[in-house]
Amino acid sequence: MPLDSNHLIGKEALLLLLHKEDQLPEKLRQLDWKYCKGKVGSMDGQKVVAAVETAAKNQGIIKSSLYRETHALYHAILEAMSGVTRGNNQIGTLLRTVGLQFAIVRGNPYKDKEEGEWIAVALYGTIGAPVKGLEHEAIGLGINHI
Amino acid sequence: MPLDSNHLIGKEALLLLLHKEDQLPEKLRQLDWKYCKGKVGSMDGQKVVAAVETAAKNQGIIKSSLYRETHALYHAILEAMSGVTRGNNQIGTLLRTVGLQFAIVRGNPYKDKEEGEWIAVALYGTIGAPVKGLEHEAIGLGINHI
Amino acid sequence: MPLDSNHLIGKEALLLLLHKEDQLPEKLRQLDWKYCKGKVGSMDGQKVVAAVETAAKNQGIIKSSLYRETHALYHAILEAMSGVTRGNNQIGTLLRTVGLQFAIVRGNPYKDKEEGEWIAVALYGTIGAPVKGLEHEAIGLGINHI
Amino acid sequence: MPLDSNHLIGKEALLLLLHKEDQLPEKLRQLDWKYCKGKVGSMDGQKVVAAVETAAKNQGIIKSSLYRETHALYHAILEAMSGVTRGNNQIGTLLRTVGLQFAIVRGNPYKDKEEGEWIAVALYGTIGAPVKGLEHEAIGLGINHI
Amino acid sequence: MPLDSNHLIGKEALLLLLHKEDQLPEKLRQLDWKYCKGKVGSMDGQKVVAAVETAAKNQGIIKSSLYRETHALYHAILEAMSGVTRGNNQIGTLLRTVGLQFAIVRGNPYKDKEEGEWIAVALYGTIGAPVKGLEHEAIGLGINHI
Amino acid sequence: MPLDSNHLIGKEALLLLLHKEDQLPEKLRQLDWKYCKGKVGSMDGQKVVAAVETAAKNQGIIKSSLYRETHALYHAILEAMSGVTRGNNQIGTLLRTVGLQFAIVRGNPYKDKEEGEWIAVALYGTIGAPVKGLEHEAIGLGINHI
Ligand SMILES: [Mg+2]
Ligand SMILES: [Mg+2]
Ligand SMILES: [Mg+2]
Ligand SMILES: [Mg+2]
Ligand SMILES: [Mg+2]
Ligand SMILES: [Mg+2]
């Protein structure tokens, strides 16, 4: 039942995010997993959620016709946002803005194939005042069964 | 005043954490920054805080004689923990345990040298039931001026 | 001082909410308690609060001329909302919407009459993406002395 | 894709909890769903989690050999606890205790059979000072895809 | 219905706390309000709650035989603690300790006498690492109708 | 390393806030510390943050050209707001409004001069329904190294 240390879905999502765009993490190349990347900048939390959901649906990471897949993704996004906001999931209401890249990976990270598919949402970028430069980095990762 | 995209302190801390132990992120090799890595596994939040603080003091990342440095580190640790716990900073009280690696980096990530030193605490590992394998990955990053 | 197991104010509010509109919970019929029901759907937390407050005032559950009654009701509403939102009291800012029924009950649920009046606010309905069907149920209950 | 208003999994769990033990909600009798009830009283959040998890495994509601099922249940339990604690999931650390009944229901509440199985955890009881009678009612409901 | 600016219950509690022990805020001397002061130092949130509750009962600020008074006080204490802990009400579990003075005031701060009695709990002191000097100040205030 | 009990930065900020405008706390007169006062009333959290930041920059409490100073101030403001809102930093989204005075103090509160400068943000005023009089007092204090 343990995680397969060669197929860590969170790590793959994070490396996909942190590496240059043309550098695909080695593992992701070898696995038959679905993934995509995107960007979103906003003071509005719902735009961050929407950007990740739209990418996941448009890139075929999740089936938009199934609520259970949207539900799995949604909770993974909220968990990732809570890392970026360090707990409260508030952005503009606290006079801050985010400039984020996101990566979404869907695959089976456990050795036991019965554990099925999981989804990871990683967010990385900056958070700070709505003034260029008044910001520092932030990260978040949400993982859910799907 | 912007972040220097070649000296991203959070990214360096995250890559230090996600790479194999003998692979040092390129940038960290070139910069005259302080950093260290460590591990902690616990159901007890205060042990996670203590492990990171002890490493930072023992490895000379912060001066233990100055409260302002301990204060900067402490808030960075709490912010990182809120990513790992996805908001509530509770571990054992919710019947879960963490197995984490941590990286601490201290340096000057802004182009303007007057922005001075900052500290990044990154946590990466697993969180889940206190049973081997019943766990998934988690990440957290806290950044503070020091 | 214990709760009277025949006069559980929270349970009455919940059953009033969960039963069909023409089915009044047995206990509520017998007690000389004040109660009302209503509906609200919104992505906006303040509209949920306003809908419950307005109903409570219009139906004579609380005296609108007394702040202490509004205060008691307000905290009961927030506690109920935290059940529905599972902790953060955020709705639209996280790209979700609620479709809720609410019940408000005011009465004396303790055996000792000196414990006086209490108010219960129960919310039940759905929460999810702002798309019909992409939602699941949620509940919340707030109880306060009044 | 909408919820089937005759198969509301959350409502069934709540009615199972609020009704007398020998009264089974009508719908649950007709459906081929799995469910169980139990009790737990504690000042210790992890005991509440453990009691629900143990019941779910022992009564065959979830397969203990699959982490994805434990994961689905765990998050449903935490969501239910956040209703009971009204947000912070802390019990004894804030000098309060809970006396709860719980119901767990597993079934397919959506009209579209492809939406598959979902799990609902409902908690109902009292929360208050660790002194008999110094307490009021609380409820919580967590729902997850499984 | 407005607050009487000469009878601000929160301000009185805060000044009672911030002034030297032999200096009683002017207003409190003139009003027929109940109040007391005390101290508590702990890494354990429940000890803070208990210290304030015990003082309030022993000094006759609240009637211990009425749960509604304990309930009013309890929520005021939690609100004050959330100021001290800046949101999460966790102390030792995050490896920090508090050294607090507290003041409790009970009176009628509104011009309209029908608004009745309210209770204020103020906490002031230090929070920090469990090492002398590694700490800074913190404050909290909770106000409730009683 | 301990706090100098004659130079308590938080207490000075609180007394500056709680006293009449023409009464300057004794200590502040003697110390060579920077401080200012201001007012803000809003249902919008970002306006509270902005009002305090603008005052701090305009009154020369912090250097607006340095992000590290804005960062120190920002976290102090959020900590103070969490006292006022008792944890969630939400105002208008929960149908409430604040009428606050704020004080900002910058100085060196520790005996050891190497501890350098710290900043305190104190907020005091009322929080309640957006109707005159339906409100009670609230306080918050955030302290950070700068
Ligand atoms: Mg999880
Ligand atoms: Mg920051
Ligand atoms: Mg209560
Ligand atoms: Mg959900
Ligand atoms: Mg209040
Ligand atoms: Mg601090």
TrEMBL record, chains A, B, C, D, E, F:
Described function: Antiterminator that binds to cis-acting regulatory sequences on the mRNA in the presence of histidine, thereby suppressing transcription termination and activating the hut operon for histidine utilization.
Lineage: Bacteria, Bacillati, Bacillota, Bacilli, Bacillales
Subunit structure: Homohexamer.
Name of the featured protein: Hut operon positive regulatory protein
GO terms, biological process: L-histidine metabolic process; positive regulation of gene expression
Family: Belongs to the HutP family.
Provenance organism: Virgibacillus phasianinus
Alphabetic keyword roster: Activator, Histidine metabolism, RNA-binding, Transcription, Transcription regulation
Highest taxon, organism lineage: Bacteria
Pfam families assigned to the protein according to its UniProt record, in alphabetical order: HutP
InterPro entries: Regulatory_HutP, Regulatory_HutP_bacillales, Regulatory_HutP_sf
Keyword field contains Kinase: no
RNA-binding listed as a keyword: yes
Single Gene Ontology MF annotation: mRNA binding
